[in-house]
Structure formats: C-alpha cells, structure tokens
TrEMBL record:
This is KilA-N domain-containing protein. InterPro entries: HTH_APSES_sf, KilA/APSES_HTH, KilA_N. PROSITE patterns: KILA_N. It comes from the Eukaryota. One of its GO terms (molecular function) is DNA binding. Residues 16-64 form the KilA-N domain. Transmembrane segments: none annotated.
Amino acid sequence: MSVEAKTFTNKSNGETFTKGTYNGIEVLRRDKDGYINATKMAREAGKLNHLNRFLNSAKMQENS
C-alpha cells in the first residue's frame, strides 16, 4: 500500500490542507484542526449510495 500526501493552500481563505489517500479514496485534511469531511469520504467509498438515491429521487426533488 502506498501513501501519498501533498500540502496546498486554498487561495480563497488562506487555509492549508493536506491531500492524501486512504484506501484509494482521495482525502483532504484541514491542517489547523485535522478536520476531514467523513460524509464525502463515505460517499466516495459507496457507503451512502442509498442516501444519494433518495436525495436525487423525484419525490425528494418535488419537495425542494
């Protein structure tokens, strides 16, 4: 398993992030507090496909 990390700065707000991979999923970690968007990570891993189908369903679109 190879691990790769790269640091970059978000130019719009000056925050720095480290970009890496976890089990083949691209992950961004905010350097100041270690925050990782776990929902995005899970969605990319296919764990929330049922939620994605619901949010994109015609029934849900009618209510928005």
